[in-house]
Amino acid sequence: MSRILIVAKRVLTQLRHDKRLLGLSVMAPLLIIYLLKIFFDTMPKGFNNARYIMPITAFMVHFLAFLLCAIVLVQERTAGTLERMFINGFRRIEIIGGYVLGYILLATFQAVIALAEALWLFDLSYAWGDLALLFGVIWLLAITSVMLGMFISTFARHEGQVFPFIPLIILPSVFLSGLLINPEQLPTWANWLGHAFPLFYANDAIQEIIGKTPSSSVIWTNIVILLGYGLFLLTLASRTLKDVE
Amino acid sequence: MNAVEVRGLTKRYGNVHALQGIDLSVPEGMIFGLLGSNGAGKSTLIKALVGALKPNSGDWQVLGLNPLRDQAKLRALIGYMPQGVALYEDLSARENLRFFGSAHGVPELEQRIQAALEFTELTSRAEHAVYGFSGGMKKRVSLACALLHQPRMLFLDEPTAAVDPHLKVRSWQLFRELANAGTTLFISTHLMDEALLCDRLAIQQAGKILIVDTPQAILEHGQTQLTIQAAGQTSNQQIASTPSALAESLRGYGLNPAVQTIALQPDSLETIVLRMLQQSEVAK
User: Which single residue of A39, A70, B119, B245 has CA 20 to 30 Å from B281?
Assistant: First the structure.
């Protein structure tokens, strides 16, 4: 456990030193939510803002956690620090645990301020229990995104090779996970494909939480699937994060 | 017990044979040099020995342990300085040392970090981010990271490349002190002056070890240009670079008072190594 904390502390120290990256990764979601506010203000009265705002907030945390984790891990590999960590005795699970812990703190911070801004700007109000559930879903999605970033990083030899995965994995999830339209309106194959993205389950849970007649079984089913997805990616990441060439 | 015992080690990357049946024994407590040009496979061999790379075939042991099977045990006993910088550039020199030192659970870590910073003459820059450092300074931080946990064996991949002459001398003084204290050092280099400071030297070319011997014995593989001026006449001879060959050549002159000057110009290690490499190319 202590070595997981050592890795997490190092990840956070690096982020603290890289003020530009830290500032941008916190400010960017806030700016986008503000732009969304300007955009949604043009919609006719009675338009259901929350149906889009909450999942988009989750998406931004998902996207940034994925991208930051994937790029930093590729950097670790190209700089030789990952190899050095292994030779210095760090185990795979300690490195993965440290990364998850480090990035989850960043993702928590992002989720809290992005949610707070969305609630404030769009004048949304929910019961404390629902807010806790919303936060929990976004938080869980962020953990899954860190795992996804870790897994994807194994397919990239340098930072630039991470970017093709954005149109391959991240952008399709925007259209197929129910962020913009109900997935049931999509062709069957597209609806099924949507189920492959963790954002699908996060969005489904969020729509249920903010819906008029929330079903706790649907919410918890999605949370459990998201958790399973995270564990599946953790297994994949721990298998692909090689300590031996 | 030998610190390193390697038999028939091979490693392929597609069609490239990075290691082609390496045989090597390194006794404990010595400085072992691995000399070779770029692409000779030096880093590949070191990576296999520290357990960062899985060879295709062969038997290999380091400190009596298999680098892959006994990975955790071995990694506590060895220090490794890679050829690249392999540091967190956003972190300061001290933070890098603290991170890599913490991994080994080094006792009195802060004192050891301070001592390592003083040795590498980085005390005044200890709190500065590594990205602002010169290449030589980064190498110094990297070396300090490898030394922190006082390992039984050190693998240093070109440790003094791009390091200024003053620190290079200091580094080799430290390497000798460590070897005298029982640490085994396995150092790859392409610098001939450094190679001569090793106790034993292996010359590697295209994934093969061409020769393993003491630097003195390798020098004796060269030729010496012997120039003698006697009675106004100059004679030039190519003789083997061995004391006996020299004695043999001089014997003919006896104590002839006509001999005015004797000049010896032995082949440098560089010349000998280049010749060996050329011969190995021709033999292919």
Answer: B245
